[in-house]
Amino acid sequence: MKISSSRLLLRAVTGAAALLLLSGPLVAAPASANGTSDAVPPSRYIVTFADRAAASSITREQTYLDAGSPVGAAVTELHLTGSGGTVVEVDPDLTVEETAAVVSALAADPDVERVEPDVLLYPSAVTPNDPLYPRQWNLQGAGGGADAAPAWTSSTGKGQVVAVVDTGITAHTDLQAQVLPGYDLISDPAVAGDGNGRDADPRDEGDWYPNGSCGRTVGSASTWHGTHVSGVVAASANNGTGISGVAPGAQILPVRTLGTCGGYMSDISDGIIWAAGGQLPGVPLNPTPARVINLSLGGVSTCSAAMQQAVNFAAERGAVVVAAAGNDSISADRSQPANCDNVMVVGATDRNGSRAPYSNFGPLVDLMAPGGNTMGDSSGGILSTINNGKSVPADEGYAYYQGTSMAAPHVAGAAALLLSADPGLTSQQVESTLLQTARELPGSCTPHCGPQLLNISAAVAAVASPFADVPKSMQFYDDMRWMAEAGISTGWTETNGTSTYRPLESVNRDAMAAFMYRLAGSPAFTPPQKSPFADVSTGNQFYKEISWLAAEEISTGWLESNGTKTYRPLQPVNRDAMAAFMYRYADSPAYTVPVKSPFADIAKTNQFYKEISWLASTGISTGWAGGNGTSTYRPLSSVKRDAMAAFMHRFDTRFN
């Protein structure tokens, strides 16, 4: 059976008014770089003391006081860095000269090794530098966009292969880094246009045809449809060229099955099987089987046995098979392969989030995605990679196309992002995640309003680790993810826009106060005007949380020889003190200590024996199993941030 070209979804737009070829150079406006003589100086600095261990809190406070007093400025200590520096804040209202005087005084102090500005850096991965990216409304979060950019801080699709079963591919700067060898599976030389049948060259030779051919009165120029679809999936990002794809880190596997006048069902179904890693007679095995297969093609007919068998094979191999719903403005159950089982059917929306007038519809449609509408305004289409040749390949370019052919690769790219974020996902889990995180259409979708609009950032957030340095394989992954979801820890924002948790760092006492305050739901609390601790100024980053901890009698601090109390905010929390914190946080419940210690290294005479044994009785801490059947608690070890997440999550589960 040969699919009629009049029904193929490879024809993204028809007519000159609907297609804009961007053959001329498109240059992004240069960023402004105006100099200024009254620049605002930084207010945060990293101070490295010559001997941090010997520089007591009193010594450091005196250093800050000596540096700020001449200009009447406060220097406030914020936190300790992992490299041993101390972040301080200088009064931000100072002039450039006053700030310079304070910094110079800090640097001149004999206890200080160096002072450097804690400058602000900005994400480099969220908004790509591709000059045409601003024209890609389909990737934005506003209107009918699929909101792709926020997902790239967690996943770019790296490590995933997306098969584009289509017209093949042409050479393009924006695709060259992403394209795998692929294969040409067109068996009829007349359809292939390359003078032979199946071969290892998936290059798109052009699908043009003259007047009177393919059952059409008027001929057509080549569409370079596979190149356009491939760009939507995985055009390179941040390469200073052209556009960005949905999954710019994924790899494209071009599987050529469509040529002049369309493509035979036998070739298309074979293309699906080969893409998924199946064996075809006389064709080498695909060395890079695809987890995602994009089918931006179709025709008005029932699902054939050959097509269903091919899709079933891919599904059994764990592939996500994405199919365009069709461009006939009819019920999708009349369009093949959309009406086959085991495919994810995608309808098209315009830039306002309404169903595009050409898009098929009905209960069979699983999800809507940007497909564009170029009627009246070509920029309402989906901008992607093409070739500028009218018949055979010529120079590369970019063009706006419309169609469910453009909607489907948005979903295919999103599937690659999910699988890259969590390779253990099944195809069913990928589909359910995409459906569960989709948003309501911002526009209208008559006559059928069941499907929702693809929301890429929400889908990736649902499966990706909230922290770049916390893989799902890490021991306390679920607990650290809970810390993020509960708002107890936001981690650190790195210069590439990702967040890190730093799981193996020790938890300092100031951060512990913040964690416990947030665990309590950040209750309304007015901190006292005078600090309860001599070493915690009212300007401290966590002053509210530390003073709340004191007010709740969760921490009493240390009584110093001069009668004052200190909190020692930058000192790591030991595991014995952590048990005491949690016991008091639980309102010091009545508890009878056991006759025998639950831990071999905790004697009944230990200062915190009651609190530690209580922690064991609740299951919040199990300690370390020894080889002789005993467990140890390691009371004087500092609490690492990953273990802290586990302690707090178990506490919340047990008591809150």
What would you call the structural class? alpha/beta
Any idea what the shape is? Answer: elongated
N- to C-terminal distance: 63 Å
Number of DSSP helical runs? 15
Q: Rg, please? A: 31 Å
For the biggest β-sheet, the strand order reads: 7-8-6-9-11-13-14
Low-confidence stretches: 1-39
Number of strands: 22
Mean pLDDT across all amino acids: 88
Summarize the amount of helix as a percent range.
25-40%
Percent in strands:
5-15%
> Describe the biggest sheet?
7 strands, parallel
Spell out the blueprint of helices and strands:
Blueprint: E1 20-22, E2 44-49, H1 57-68, E3 75-80, E4 86-90, H2 96-108, E5 112-117, E6 161-166, E7 183-184, H3 189-192, H4 225-234, E8 251-256, H5 265-275, E9 292-295, E10 299-300, H6 305-316, E11 320-324, E12 335-336, E13 344-349, E14 367-370, E15 382-387, E16 396-401, H7 404-421, H8 427-437, H9 456-463, H10 477-485, E17 492-493, E18 499-500, H11 509-519, H12 543-551, E19 558-559, E20 565-566, H13 575-585, H14 609-618, E21 624-625, E22 631-632, H15 641-655
Helix pairs in contact: 1-2, 4-7, 5-6, 7-9, 8-9, 10-15, 11-12, 13-14
